[in-house]
Design goal:
Layout: E1 4-7, H1 11-18, E2 22-23, E3 32-35, E4 40-47, E5 50-57, H2 86-89, E6 96-101, E7 103-110, E8 113-119, E9 127-132
Parallel strand pairs: 2-5
Antiparallel strand pairs: 1-3, 1-7, 4-5, 4-6, 6-9, 7-8
Length: about 140
């Protein structure tokens, strides 16, 4: 499962390819060849029938979580268990998004060493991944 991804395209080319209506806070975007869990990267959501890009942290922090450390563990969701896991099941209906990327890495172990393999579109188009999102705010107890 994907544990590192890339987004090496400039904002204008992303807007053009995905027909984006609005990009929230574009000054905080920077292209990267190595986006890791807990880092921020752009996602596409639909608000008021418009395609809106927002920067979100990679790693889901459920609303019921007392602290944000769980976000580094919840970085991938398996389709076969989405409806059963408390972290995901309440987000399926209204909190879907598209994770914008142009490639991702998978590692393979061979002879005790891990080797990265980079997956991307052959014509360098964006790769779009299904995602879930939520907002998390620390409770007074966790501060």
């Amino acid at each position: 499962m994907c544990g590192r991804k890339t987004l090496t395209r400039d904002i204008q080319s992303i807007i053009q390819e995905l027909a984006i209506n609005k990009w929230v806070d574009p000054d905080n975007y920077s292209l990267s060849y190595n986006i890791a869990p807990t880092q921020r990267s752009p996602i596409l959501i639909f608000e008021n029938s418009q395609r809106v890009v927002k920067q979100m942290q990679w790693g889901l922090i459920p609303k019921w979580s007392k602290d944000q450390t769980i976000g580094s563990k919840l970085i991938n969701a398996r389709s076969e268990s989405l409806k059963n896991k408390p972290s995901f099941k309440n987000l399926l209906e209204k909190n879907r998004c598209i994770v914008i990327t142009d490639g991702y890495y998978e590692w393979r172990s061979s002879g005790g060493e891990k080797h990265p393999y980079y997956f991307h579109h052959p014509q360098n188009h964006l790769l779009l991944m299904a995602g879930l999102w939520s907002y998390w705010t620390p409770s007074e107890k966790s501060k």
